[in-house]
Specification:
Elements: H1 2-10, H2 13-30, H3 32-45, H4 50-71, H5 75-81, E1 82-85, H6 87-95, E2 100-104, H7 116-120, E3 124-128, H8 134-145, E4 150-153, H9 158-166, E5 170-174, E6 184-188, E7 191-195, H10 198-206, E8 210-218, E9 221-226, H11 238-259
Parallel strand pairs: 1-9, 2-5, 2-8, 3-4, 3-5
Antiparallel strand pairs: 6-7, 8-9
Helix pairs in contact: 2-4, 3-4
């Protein structure tokens, strides 16, 4: 596995992209259950040419994997092609001295988002779920840390997250996957979805600002976008405060996805 990764890394980008395009098309054709799930999700969420969008999604992720292999940790490339939009939003959140939670979705090239540590010149903690394949997980973790980030397992205790936030550190968390049976249920594209409310809880208890963030691509350049921070309000209705915070976050996700639906991970059962 490690040999294949290193081999792909030295190949020209066009060759690697052809390889992953081929893999993506094969998966699109043979994994019928995932393909139908993607098509149905797109059809119910945004409509339009949902089958075409599903195929574009597979090809976009082939591109994403290619670019992550080629560019994550590539300092020379990142200096030239990676930038930040909305840095004032991040700086404001950081100035509150209550830690920062970057709320991420499986939208755009979330793997290259780890490279923002290189631009900010500070350590960014990245919370991830360990992959089932240990060898692959080691390769991915090494790549994620190659830009100066720090990978945290989602299995870590909440106390560790509290400690990091109290030290005014930043934690990036992908939060758009389905929560457990006891999770909060809110509208996501007008359909009830179970959401993990942990980041709203951190914001409620510590006053930590939540900064929705994603990456966009323009003319061969990669731009990390930090949007205006969201801070959980504290009223006499705790449950409503948490719910309203998560609704605000997911409304941002909807805006991103509507603008570029092919860049979202439609192939999982988000509304189960």
């Amino acid at each position: 596995m490690n040999f294949l990764y290193k081999f792909l890394k030295i190949l020209p980008k066009c060759v690697v992209l052809i390889f992953f395009d081929f893999v993506a098309i094969i998966l699109y054709l043979i994994l019928k259950k995932r393909r139908v799930m993607a098509e149905e999700n797109i059809k119910k969420a945004i409509g339009g040419h949902y089958k075409r969008t599903a195929l574009k999604t597979y090809l976009y992720f082939a591109k994403m994997v290619t670019e992550s292999i080629k560019y994550v940790g590539n300092e020379k490339f990142l200096r030239k092609h990676l930038s930040i939009e909305g840095i004032e939003n991040y700086n404001y959140a950081k100035s509150l001295n209550k830690g920062v939670i970057a709320a991420l979705a499986h939208f755009g090239n979330w793997e290259m988002m780890t490279c923002v540590s290189f631009i900010l010149k500070e350590r960014i903690n990245i919370m991830v779920r360990p992959l089932d394949n240990k060898k692959l997980d080691e390769i991915v973790e090494t790549a994620r840390e190659s830009c100066g980030g720090n990978v945290i397992s989602s299995r870590e205790s909440a106390f560790k997250i509290f400690r990091l936030l109290k030290k005014n550190e930043t934690i990036g968390i992908l939060i758009d996957q389905a929560g457990n049976e006891d999770s909060l249920r809110i509208d996501f594209f007008k359909r009830k979805a179970r959401v993990n409310k942990s980041i709203a809880l951190f914001s409620y208890k510590l006053g930590t600002p939540i900064v929705p963030a994603y990456m966009k691509e323009e003319n061969g350049n990669y731009i990390v976008v930090f949007e205006e921070p969201i801070i959980c309000e504290r009223t006499d209705n705790y449950k409503k405060d948490i719910e309203n915070t998560m609704i605000k976050i997911y409304s941002r996700f909807e805006e991103w996805i509507k603008n570029s639906p092919e860049k979202y991970l439609w192939m999982h059962n988000r509304w189960k």
